[in-house]
Write a structure and sequence with these properties.
By secondary structure, this protein is an alpha+beta fold. The chain has five helices and eleven strands; from the N terminus they run βββαββαβαββαββαβ. This is YigZ family protein.
Amino acid sequence: MKEEDVYHTIEKVSPEILFKDRKSKFYGQAFPIRSEEEVKPLIEQLRKKHHTANHVCYAWQLGEHTHSYRANDDGEPNNSAGMPIYGQIQSFGLTNILVTVTRIFGGTKLGVGGLISAYRTAAQIALDSSDIVEKTIETIFDLRFGYPEMDKVMRTIKQKGISVVAQKMEMDCAMTISIRKSEADTVFKIFDDLPNIKISRLD
């Protein structure tokens, strides 16, 4: 199996965990996300849930081929919260994920070193309690062909274990197929070599 063929993420929201340090409470949680737009509503939801919280700090990472990420300290000293959380996302090798740590101040200042340690630990416990799954990176293709080619197309799909994402049968046939990234070039060539079949990459 090729390494670039797979990525790791979570499929469902993790249980909320509680880590305490010198009376401050740190609530950690992990969320599966597909876009940056999903982040803000989840943070607002946590602010409502923990309405006495002083900070809702977080980090996220998105992307299967190339990664984009953000870390947010939400008023804590610079790089004392968001980056330690992000460090745990990297340590677990995850993507398409948001990890939050909500802090309720307990009256004792922890100092920057104490904060880094507390946020990192809360994020780590949250990820330890998450269901981590391995997913295959897929390449999506569009197929166009006439009805006489249907047998050839279906035979190739069956032989190669290709997933059909969508299909439309009208005057001609249109099909969206999903192929494991490491096999994409091979499958493209097979269809490209067949007469009267047009294949194009969608992603």
